[in-house]
Inverse folding.
């Protein structure tokens, strides 16, 4: 902790020297007398205090969704007198200050504690680290200062924002566990199916009395089973376009989080494959724990350049079950991803591509000009041609403008599936 | 927080006008005031220092134009005002946009009031000693000022550097 002279001290020295020089040239004693307070200010030793202080930080929440606000409370306690303490907490780019200030000045007497709060808005998913608080201890005059830092852990997890979803793409095939889909097989369920003759062992409550009275024989109603499904979200992290926090990857992650949340709420098993250089995945599962695992994985999703290109054939069967609905979320910027989904479709997976369009995100960053408009139109045509070539392979492509609700893009799912089936 | 240094600037720049109400003094004073205002707006301590230099120049000019007997009490007040101007301007620059803890401004004002009293006493004591010494010793004025000024500047810089090294 070495004190350093501040620019103010140099200013005072300059003014004193200037006053003395003018005094000599004019031969007036008043100028020399006027310099005396300046010299007195420099000579007078002003204490920097004991330097015995510490901080503690508290967050109103240690996890939040994008767009939510978190209140940060910093408490400064002093073991001895502190003349002027300046604290500054640099904010990571994923957080934005919305109320208060992340810089504060305090004066403390012995054993005094002061609390200071400010509010931040979580702009982008990720782990925001509020770690080091920069501190500067000033003397009262502001002529000398000591810089130091205080570490106080404050991890904040910012999860991707959930987009409202009411209707979801329905899987073709269901699994064996109980869920919300009406399966073609009959058994225990709520949805009435076929009627058949009574056989010993059938429950009396399943007897269809109306049919039994008409045909003078006992008939029972069969019910469709209600089953769940496996849904695999395949996230393209090979490339992204746009500026943070509105890149195609951000839009993809938000879509993946929303779909995961909605499918898990329907008791489906949801898994995640992050298709970047090397694969990263989360095995399919259901429940609250699985939601935490998926959101943690989505927190870390980012584009990392790699020469490694994974083959989907290497993904274990337990990660990519054969009867799963695969929702590939990709801006279709990298041909490797298209090849991967074509491979999956060739292996008979029920697959649909949700493609957040990079065009509006990139266009927003650029000044409006005829050449930009033309380039965007050509890009849109190229994307349309690429989608058409994928549709010829039997893949449904849902184009999504990230400025529009996700539900609008998913509404075209059944139409696309019918068209491909026809 | 920009108002206290601005009021001090007006007061410090107004004093030379009282001594010598001349157009040249007024022009320099207005230029210094403009520099001070700009320094407060853009939070530049260099501009405030430049304002201080112009203020000293304006004061020297007014003393030269007035050419009366020495006004030492006024000079001490002028010096105190100049120190408080640069200190308050620097303080306002530092704390702008920041959260201020309880009692910070009050304790800072108490410090400045105490400093003004002590600096005023020191300036008057120095002036008294100088007057007494001038009655006893018959030194040529300019070389004595030059030597004293150089020594004072040297001492100030030395102290500043010693503090910088801790």
């Amino acid at each position: 902790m070495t004190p350093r002279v501040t620019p103010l001290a140099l200013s005072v020295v300059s003014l004193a020297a200037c006053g003395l020089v003018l005094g000599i040239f004019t031969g007036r004693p008043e100028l020399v007398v006027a310099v005396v307070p300046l010299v007195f200010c420099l000579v007078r030793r002003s204490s920097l205090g004991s330097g015995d202080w510490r901080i503690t930080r508290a967050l109103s929440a240690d996890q939040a969704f994008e767009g939510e606000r978190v209140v940060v409370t910093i408490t400064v306690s002093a073991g001895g007198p502190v003349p002027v303490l300046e604290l500054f907490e640099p904010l990571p780019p994923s957080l934005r200050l919305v109320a208060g200030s992340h810089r504060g000045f305090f004066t403390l007497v012995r054993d005094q504690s002061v609390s200071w709060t400010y509010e931040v808005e979580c702009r982008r998913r990720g782990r925001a680290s509020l770690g080091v608080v920069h501190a500067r201890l000033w003397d009262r005059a502001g002529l000398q200062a000591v810089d130091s830092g205080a570490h106080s852990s404050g991890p904040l997890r910012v999860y991707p924002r959930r987009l409202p979803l009411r209707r979801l793409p329905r899987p073709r095939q269901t699994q064996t566990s109980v869920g919300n889909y009406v399966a073609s097989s009959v058994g225990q369920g709520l949805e009435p199916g076929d009627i058949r003759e009574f056989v010993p062992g059938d429950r009396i409550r399943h007897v269809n009395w109306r049919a039994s009275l008409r045909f003078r024989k006992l008939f029972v109603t069969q019910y469709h089973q209600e089953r769940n499904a496996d849904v695999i979200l395949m996230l393209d992290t090979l490339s992204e376009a746009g500026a943070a926090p509105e890149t195609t990857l951000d839009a993809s992650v938000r879509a993946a989080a929303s779909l995961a949340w909605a499918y898990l709420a329907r008791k489906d098993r949801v898994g995640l494959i992050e298709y970047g250089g090397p694969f990263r995945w989360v095995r399919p599962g259901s429940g609250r724990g699985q939601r935490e695992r998926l959101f943690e994985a989505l927190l870390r999703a980012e584009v990392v350049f790699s020469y490694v290109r994974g083959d989907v054939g290497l993904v274990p069967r337990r990660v990519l079950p054969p009867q799963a609905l695969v929702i590939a979320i990709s801006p279709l910027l990298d041909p490797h991803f298209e090849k991967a989904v074509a491979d999956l479709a060739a292996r008979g997976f029920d697959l649909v591509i949700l493609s957040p369009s990079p065009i509006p995100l990139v266009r927003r960053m650029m000044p409006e000009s005829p050449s930009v408009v033309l380039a965007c139109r050509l890009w849109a045509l190229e994307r349309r041609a690429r989608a058409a070539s994928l549709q010829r392979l039997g893949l449904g492509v849902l184009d999504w403008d990230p400025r529009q609700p996700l539900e609008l893009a998913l509404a075209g799912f059944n139409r696309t599936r019918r068209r491909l089936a026809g | 927080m920009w108002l206290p240094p601005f009021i001090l600037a007006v007061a410090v720049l107004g004093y030379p006008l009282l001594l010598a109400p001349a157009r040249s003094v007024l022009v320099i004073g207005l230029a210094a005031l403009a520099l001070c205002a700009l320094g407060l707006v853009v939070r530049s301590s260099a501009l405030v220092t430049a304002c201080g230099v112009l203020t000293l120049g304006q004061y020297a000019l007014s003393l030269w134009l007035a050419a009366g007997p020495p006004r030492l009490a006024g000079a001490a007040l002028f010096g105190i005002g100049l120190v408080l101007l640069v200190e308050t301007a620097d303080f306002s620059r530092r704390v702008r946009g920041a959260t201020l803890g309880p009692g910070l401004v009050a304790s800072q004002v108490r410090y400045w009031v105490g400093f003004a009293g002590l600096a005023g006493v020191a300036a008057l004591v120095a002036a008294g000693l100088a007057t007494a010494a001038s009655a006893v010793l018959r030194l040529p004025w300019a070389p004595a000022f030059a030597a004293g000024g150089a020594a004072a500047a040297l001492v100030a810089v030395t102290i500043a550097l010693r503090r910088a090294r801790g």
